[in-house]
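Subject: design request, 212 residues
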């Protein structure tokens, strides 16, 4: 299985090394390392977790024209091409299918322990100092304003409405980033999230004070 992991890593690295900083290879690698750290404390199948972390953004709806299912299909085809055993492939694809955040009022789908770990790891990378940097990198890549006090945040009721929103980047904190702490499912991630959450609150207070 070492060879399979290496082949998946090589493929993902090649595909992501030219992406902008919010969704580049470094994001994938941080999610992998965080997920493996959580696995040490929470248990779960480390191989499923590592493969799913490497593949979790392989075809993101934000970059593929809005197809929410493509990621799972691309991962499935790649794992089949690399002769991954069926059971392992299914476990990995089940995780990838439920990782993505779909809006403030859209509940997360129930998932395996491995799914909870990868989803928590992806979300830990969306908050704290790195989360702030990623949000503005993404906003910049889409020509979004930093902030506009006249445009209030929206709590999205569907994945389509969430995906179509083109608001300013400060709103993204209220529409997603500040809600992630309470969506963490593993105790280890809940602990890490607390401090990162508080750092974002401090950042927002400072940002708005300067804006005045
Ligand atoms: P998921 O990985 O759960 O599908 P997204 O792909 O929506 O979540 O977002 C991943 C990261 O991309 C966010 O945590 C944030 O850093 C950045 N991002 C996505 N949408 C926005 C947005 N509208 N404004 C700023 N950053 C965003
Ligand atoms: Ni991700």
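Subject: RE: design request

Done. Sequence follows.
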């Amino acid at each position: 299985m070492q060879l399979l992991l290496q082949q998946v890593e090589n493929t993902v690295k090649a595909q992501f090394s030219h992406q902008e900083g919010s969704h580049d290879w470094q994001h994938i690698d941080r999610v992998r390392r965080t997920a493996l750290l959580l696995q040490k404390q929470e248990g779960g199948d480390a191989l499923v977790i590592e493969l799913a972390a490497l593949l979790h953004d392989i075809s993101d709806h934000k970059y593929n024209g809005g197809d929410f299912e493509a990621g799972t299909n691309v991962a499935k085809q790649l794992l089949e091409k690399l002769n991954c055993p069926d059971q392992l492939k299914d476990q990995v694809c089940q995780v990838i299918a439920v990782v993505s955040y779909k809006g403030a009022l859209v509940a997360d789908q129930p998932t395996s322990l491995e799914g909870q770990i990868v989803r928590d790891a992806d979300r830990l990378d969306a908050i704290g100092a790195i989360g702030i940097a990623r949000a503005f990198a993404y906003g910049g890549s889409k020509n979004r304003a930093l902030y506009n006090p006249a445009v209030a945040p929206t709590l999205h009721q569907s994945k389509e409405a969430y995906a179509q929103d083109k608001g300013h980047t400060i709103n993204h904190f209220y529409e997603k980033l500040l809600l992630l702490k309470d969506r963490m499912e593993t105790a280890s991630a809940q602990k890490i999230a607390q401090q990162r959450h508080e750092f974002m609150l401090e950042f927002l207070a400072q940002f708005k004070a300067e804006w005045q």
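The chain has a mean pLDDT of 96.
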